[in-house]
What does this fold into?
Amino acid sequence: MFVSPALHFTTLTKRTSLIRRIYIIFAGLLSVVNAHAESPVDIAPIIHLRNLVQNGNMVAGETPFSGFPFAVENNSVNKLTRYIQQGQLPPKYVIATEQLVNYFPIDKQALLDDKRTQTSELFSLHATHAPSPYNHDTQLLRIVIIASPTTTSSINWTEKVQVSLEFNPELVLEYRLIGYETQQARQHEHQHDDKLTDTHKNTITALYELRYNPHYDVERQQLKQSVVKQVRLKKTQGHQRFSDFTPYQMAVVRLHYQPDNIDGWPQAATSTSFTVSKLEGESRFEHASDDFRFAAAVAGFGQLLNHNVYLHDVDYAKLIEIAASALGNDELGQRQEFLHLMRATQLLTEP
It folds into this structure.
């Protein structure tokens, strides 16, 4: 909450910088706007991603917002290969799970042709889920975002595109973003790395492990919506939203971006929204696509390397079995090579 600038103007001296004066005036005006507006100012386009990339099991009722960057680095596979070739396991937090997942190309055309894929002018989103192989009572949600050629030529990815999720706290009891948990711990490793680059810049894959609310009543939610329009004001980490979830809707995905300047004129920050439905999933993990299952195997492998405490129902042998059954159309042989890497890693873990 901002303090009114009027209380401080009398204490300002000639030494007070112009920047400080401007900041105080802006802060006061924003507080007045929020105080008297019928609805809070939507600050989605200027959301701070660093506050949304959270790790561990998050309770959706307390922290419904999550997020991840659009682009990821791609050096973890090479680093892992060097360690294994030297007969060593990588130290904890050196390998980034999200980099392993996004290292492999996916069948984008198949996703674009899938009826479950949602498409806007600049982005397409494919979200599906299946029972998680990591824990018996959870679901694994896979989100794939594909940028159109128009988008890649008009937006600077690494600086101007952010992805946020708002989970339905009545349907989703807990969620966990897989990967990204070691960014701060790995910073010292990057000081001596080769130049880091982004892989598959026009796509990003993110995985979440979810636990549904066992007491969620769809019929009750439908009845509530038929009587009263549900408009819920969410206040979390300083972000304000109006959310109106349908009974089967588990989350809203928002892409926040700043278009490049046109003729030197800055463009307004904006966002695109997609919905994620509980109905867009598989009843059995084995029924999921090869891309889905291979991503799950790779993500589980990365979590085991980092001694993740949230995996209870899988080990290296089980993940290798999943990966071997999900090689799919591996034209470049990258998945087969990684499968060999997984097996070599398993041998190093054995006494």
Observations:
- The longest helix spans residues 18-36.
- The radius of gyration is 23 Å.
